[in-house]
Amino acid sequence: MVDLVHVPAEPDHPDAWTVEGTVQVGDAVDLAIHGSTDISLDVPMTRATMTEPHRAVHRLVALPAGSPRTPASVVGRAMIGLPLVGNAHLAVVYVGVHPHWRRRGIGSALWDAGLEIARAAGRRVVISDSSYRTEPPPGPDALESPTGSGRIPADDDATRFALARGFTLEQVVRHSVLDLPIHVDHLRAAPGSDYRVHLMQDDYAPEWREGMAVLKTRMSTDAPSAGLELTEDPWDAARVVADAADIRRRGQGFLVAVVEHVPTGTLAGFSMVEYPLDRPAVVYQGDTLVLREHRGHGLGMLAKIAVLDELGGVRPAAQRIHTWNAQENAHMLAINVALGFRQASVDAEWQRPL
Ligand SMILES: CC(C)(COP(=O)(O)OP(=O)(O)OC[C@H]1O[C@@H](n2cnc3c(N)ncnc32)[C@H](O)[C@@H]1OP(=O)(O)O)[C@@H](O)C(=O)NCCC(=O)NCCS
Q: Which one of 96, 197, 277, 282 has the fewest beta carbons within 10 angstroms of its own beta carbon?
């Protein structure tokens, strides 16, 4: 009924056409939900995910049985992400089926194959996510986040599928968009002499790599993760360098603002954005974090504004920034709302034991 093909990492492999197939289905799924492909993975981004040093990524595509082996025949796709450093007990499994090809068992076939890969890798927890165009009001048509913040539509293909597959809703994430240019002069504040901002583009200066590793490690524990079984994901300076190379390999540039705590010469916080070089209008907000011991001094806003100021010169055609925050992450959401981010869509974070 359905043929599954593994997507190879090598661009000269005979099945390399599957990369375009997976991108084509991703675009169709995203168009149906968001009305745009701003946040879809394109071919270079998809290829780059297949050879990341700190995560093994498997991809599968589904075709109606016997159809020609071309990208246009692909009607479904799966991604199985296996973290290799922290969180090695987890598999992130995502399945997407072209809206015209649903309820024919294609999602199930992809899902079963994905689960096999996760099982063979010895993973004991599966995490997945799904997106929805709007967050419903409270009521019988909404499924409430167990965190108490956020809701998703109960009557939706993805919700029904996840519940039928034994997943529990753990968290709701707000996707927001900020239209550029922005006017933030009223939000500017001098940081005081204890803090100083440094900006970097497309790489991390050697003197800040150790500090970035501390911040990235804290990011894995300090961002709210509700009931998701996430543990610390340790970073070191080498991983920071590898991560920068990874972003460049995806065909993206990045800007990062780090905040130095001047008396100790250590980093107190950072904020970064990434942008696909072939989509001049689009920017993604990456991580932002201020270490607990430095919170309450406006450093999150300071770092974000430093990045936004620089972005105007580096990506003059940028029109919008996408960001994702847990609905219970009140502090980060407050900063984003003050900057002018408006809610665009909503994501569910699902989990089930394996
Ligand atoms: C979720 C998704 C992958 C399902 O793909 P699919 O090919 O339609 O899935 P299947 O045909 O194998 O359906 C499997 C089961 O899921 C449930 N299901 C899926 N869609 C449903 C719907 N609209 N209403 C009720 N149940 C539904 C049913 O239990 C179904 O079994 P059944 O058809 O025997 O009743 C697809 O809807 C999709 O791509 N959604 C957007 C991407 C996404 O959010 N993916 C993440 C999901 S966690």
A: 277
Q: Whose CA is nearest to atom 44 of ligand 1?
A: 130
In a domain? residue 29: yes
Crossing angle for the helix pair 237-249 and 209-222, nearest 10 degrees? 80
- Tell me, using a 6 A CB cutoff, whether residue 95 lines ligand 1: yes
CB-CB contact of 249 with 11 (8 Å): no
Mean pLDDT for 157-167 is: 96
What is the best residue among 41, 157, 168 to mutate for testing ligand 1's pocket, by most ligand atoms within 8 Å of CB?
157
Q: Which domain CATH number covers 233?
A: 3.40.630.30
Domain assignment present for residue 228? The answer is yes
Element (H, E) at 31: helix 17-34
Please identify which residue in the block is written with the tokens 């050879």: 51
Query: Is 146 in a helix, a strand, or coil?
Result: coil
Binned at pLDDT 50, 70 and 90, residue 127 comes out as: very high
User: Are 219 and 129 within one domain?
Assistant: no
Q: Whose CA is nearest to atom 4 of ligand 1?
A: 107
- pLDDT score at 185: 85
Task: Say if ligand 1 is within 6 A of residue 152 CB.
Answer: no
328 — pLDDT class (breaks 50, 70, 90): very high
Residue 93: give the domain boundaries: 2-174
Residues 268 and 136 grouped into a single domain: no
Give, for ligand 1, the residue of 34, 75, 77, 103 to mutate: max count of ligand atoms closer than 8 Å to Cβ: 103
Q: Are residues 244 and 158 in the same domain?
A: no
Nearest CA, atom 48, ligand 1: 162
Q: State how far the Cα of 254 lies from the Cα of 247, in Å rounded to an integer.
A: 8
Distance between CA atoms of residues 196 and 298, nearest Å: 12
71 part of a folded domain: yes
Q: Are residues 124 and 213 in the same domain?
A: no
Residue after which a domain boundary falls, among 174, 198, 227: 174
> Model confidence at 186, in pLDDT bands (50, 70, 90)?
confident
Residue 1 has pLDDT above 90, yes or no: no
| 112 CB near ligand 1 (under 6 Å) | no
